[in-house]
């Protein structure tokens, strides 16, 4: 089993109440790949500049990530700078330099085109559609989006939804896409646009999974120290999709609910330190231990 992810690789400069990091490893494809690699083989499609540190590529290779789809272009790697304040629920973007990512056109190697699963990270909907034209018969297609595309390319985004089994987006994006203030109505409205399954991420408040007619709510894992929320959502998606791919992409209610727990737990490791510092030294035994604790917190005993 394998999953293809198409997304960004970046060098992030991040400020939070806990400190600051300059040009740290980031990007949606990086966080997703690292999390998904706990469960399955990952094939990455993206682009970096000549300045992208070799050590970051070595890290991905050590995780078993296939980099045959990674392009190296003349120029500088995508850079993002942001600041988190207060409860750190949202980052304020200070600077975005797309650099080589601005001209990125994904080209899937032949060995990627028969992948069992595809995850379209929050890239331009035109690029997402291009990727779908290159894969043959994936058993599962999942996608993410962002406020920019909902505003500027809504029609193209709507065109993607009937071709997606699973849509993952945050609460603000769900409200923006549907015009609904209530998340249950928003989730159902997104399902009506095509995806049979929808996950709405709520940051420190966990996530809501719409699986057919069922709804599952999982809270975030309680942490005393959150240092850097960057990449938490992409880590969640990686754990979620990676687990489903391990389960042969069978989108049963039980598998989806378990995937929701795994995504939640993996995201909790990411936010404990800057960049991938905590996640890259996390073992699967650590993940299983925290998963068991979260399950006990959510359902400590049967109600009378």
Concise synopsis of the structure shown:
The chain has 304 residues and is of the alpha/beta class.
Notable traits:
single chain, 304 residues, alpha/beta, UDP-N-acetylmuramoyl-L-alanine:D-glutamate ligase, 9-stranded mixed β-sheet, 10 helices, 35% helix
Summarize the topology.
Blueprint: E1 2-6, E2 10-16, E3 19-26, H1 28-36, E4 41-49, H2 54-62, E5 66-73, E6 79-84, E7 91-97, E8 117-120, H3 125-134, E9 140-143, H4 147-152, H5 154-160, E10 166-170, H6 171-178, H7 183-192, E11 197-201, E12 207-211, E13 214-218, H8 232-246, H9 253-270, H10 284-298
Parallel strand pairs: 1-4, 1-8, 2-6, 4-5, 8-9, 9-10, 10-11
Antiparallel strand pairs: 2-3, 6-7, 11-12, 12-13
Can you walk through the features of this model?
It is a single chain. The protein is α/β, with parallel strands linked by helices and 304 residues long. It has a single domain (2-298), classed as 3-Layer(aba) Sandwich (UDP-N-acetylmuramoyl-L-alanine:D-glutamate ligase), CATH 3.40.1190.20. The chain has helices spanning 28-36, 54-62, 125-134, 147-152, 154-160, 171-178, 183-192, 232-246, 253-270, 284-298, and strands spanning 2-6, 10-16, 19-26, 41-49, 66-73, 79-84, 91-97, 117-120, 140-143, 166-170, 197-201, 207-211, 214-218. The chain has a 9-stranded mixed β-sheet with strand order 5-4-1-8-9-10-11-12-13, sandwiched between helices. Helix 2 links the parallel strand 4 and strand 5. Helix 1 (28-36) runs parallel beside helix 8 (232-246) and helix 9 (253-270) packs across helix 10 (284-298). 46% of the residues are buried.
């Amino acid at each position: 089993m394998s999953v293809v992810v198409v997304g960004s690789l970046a060098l992030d400069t991040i400020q939070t109440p806990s400190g600051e990091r300059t040009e740290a490893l980031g990007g949606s494809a990086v966080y997703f790949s690292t999390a998904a690699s706990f469960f399955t083989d990952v094939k990455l499609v993206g682009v970096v500049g000549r300045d992208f540190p070799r050590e970051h590529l070595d890290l991905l290779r050590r995780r078993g990530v296939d980099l045959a789809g990674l392009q190296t272009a003349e120029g500088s790697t995508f850079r993002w700078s942001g600041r988190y304040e207060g409860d750190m629920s949202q980052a304020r973007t200070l600077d975005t330099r797309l650099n080589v990512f601005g001209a990125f056109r994904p080209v899937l190697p032949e060995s990627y085109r028969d992948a069992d699963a595809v995850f379209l990270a929050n890239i331009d909907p035109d690029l997402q559609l291009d990727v779908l034209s290159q894969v043959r018969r994936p058993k599962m297609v999942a996608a993410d989006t962002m406020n920019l595309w909902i505003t500027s390319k809504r029609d193209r985004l709507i065109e993607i939804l009937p071709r997606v089994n699973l849509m993952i987006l945050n609460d603000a994006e769900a409200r923006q896409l549907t015009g609904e203030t209530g998340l249950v109505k928003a989730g159902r409205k997104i399902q009506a646009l095509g995806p049979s399954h929808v996950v709405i991420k709520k940051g420190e408040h966990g996530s809501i999974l719409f699986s057919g007619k069922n709804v599952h709510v999982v809270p975030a894992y309680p942490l005393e120290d959150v240092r850097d929320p960057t990449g938490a959502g992409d880590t969640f998606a990686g754990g979620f999709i990676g687990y489903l791919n391990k389960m042969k992409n069978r989108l049963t209610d039980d598998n989806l609910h378990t995937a929701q727990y795994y995504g939640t737990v993996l995201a909790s490791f990411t936010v404990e330190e800057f960049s991938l510092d905590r996640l890259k030294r996390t073992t699967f035994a650590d993940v299983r231990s925290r998963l068991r604790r979260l399950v006990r917190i959510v359902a400590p005993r049967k109600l009378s």
